[in-house]
Amino acid sequence: xxxxFTADMHLGHGNIIAYCKRPWLQDxxxxxxxxxxxxxxxxxxxEARTVAMNRALVQFWNETVTAKDTVKHLGDFCLHRxxxxxxxxxxxxxxxxxxxxxKGNHDRSREIKGMLGCATMKAGGHEFLLQHxxxxxxxxxxxxxxVVLCGHVHEAWEHKWIGSLLVVNVGVDVWNFRPVPxxxxxxxxxxxQHERKSSGLGPLPCNGGS
Length: 210
Fold this sequence. Notes:
The chain is an alpha/beta fold. Helix content is 24%, strand content 21%.
């Protein structure tokens, strides 16, 4: 039985394929518009790429997660289109394990029950804050936390430092579109914090975990 983390699956959300240049986008699928916007060349192409993404995300999830595992999804799980019955419950039934939802800015489905805004947890000698959006200032994070796990930023970055606070993006776009085991996250955090300490860039938080 394992605990895993992920974010930003955006199941059913075709436009995310174009915006984040996900692997299911093919040459000629979209036209570039001003201000970074895009337009699909046809609804049929958009639907085909969306179906391919959905199928792959479900496959990757079930190859990684067993029925006994728990996955904490840190926001933006799926897009519920009015012309489709593919709501959150539809997707949950296709995915292995127990799913715990954290609310993202695209999570508007009333079918998702008990979504969390944020939470803290201890693991591997660290105290983690879990939430969808990364913090902008260290003052937004409880003093006892030394790591933030988040989503929202997609492929923009894998991790960053806010002062001495480590923020790790667990979104699918930077983790090969699969949930990440807690043990791997702890190993990455240990490595990054060790590198920072060795580089002399500044002190690490002295309040993270025991």
